[in-house]
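Need tokens for this chain, all 333 residues.
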Amino acid sequence: MSRRTHLTQALAIAAAVLLSHGALAQSKAAPKAAPAWPTKPLKIIVGFPPGSTPDLVARTIGEPLSRAIGQPVIVENRVGAGGNIAGDAVAKATDDHTIGVMINGNMTIAKLLNPKTPFDPLKDFTPISLIGTAPLVLAGPANLPGNTAQEILLAARNAGNKWSYGSVGVGSVGHLGMELLKTRTNIDPVHIPYPGNPQVITAMIGGQIQLSLLPPALAAAQVRAGKLRAIGVTSSGRSPLVPEIPSLAEAGVPGFQLEIWNAAAAPNSMPKPVVAKLSALISQIVRTPEIREKLFQQGWQVAGTSAEGLANRIKSDTAMLGGVIVMRGIKLD
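Here are the structure tokens for all 333 residues:
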């Protein structure tokens, strides 16, 4: 074989080796393709019973979300501990196909109220989207003394601890909101917790308690029936949910603002691309006219925020409500 032939073969072999090394380097450098998602049904865990507000919200978004991801969406109710049993189940889920629809207390102050809470909402959840918000309505019996909100609050100040107010439990937004209102208005009614808002309303109608912060749909129904009296709504201005009720700012409590809300969250272990996909889908779904109207009828103003928007809301509400907890020394027994 000639020297030229040997040289040609050597060059060919060297080129092949270089090409193979280059292909190998490229294959090593190439990013892994994102795993397919979803690969099975998506589970939405709710901490309250069927027919409750969070349950209705989860089921309202479940059907369009199922169509969007091409998999069934299953709502699972894990009731107890004010929603914290469900919160713990969401925080500990590892299958990348479990999220929660939760209320603000579970996602903000749960650990501040009770250090024994088995999850930390600021560390163990990844925000997906703030779904809906609603102010509360400060209400009382129809025969409250006074013709205006200012006169009613004056009567409350004069009554001191002879008046009482009801809420759905220690640490609820209604409880913390009333404690905040006490500091802002110099009233001092005694807190009486009840199992739920129906019992609170019954106690007000019966005159056992004089005040409560109620969800707008519940309050408006009783006010229109003449059984309760609305003093003011806790939004910055009048709420489209109950436009006939003045804000507390109009009632002489400027700057007082408080809302209840519900949101979708994932365990902190869920891959970021999956969270981003769910955030985009849910925020888009709740802002469609059909779903917006359904949520409005349930008593919610649609938010449909990004994950970042929910994260910001969690931080601000944790600071505000946490401040009330510390200031008033509130603890769960």
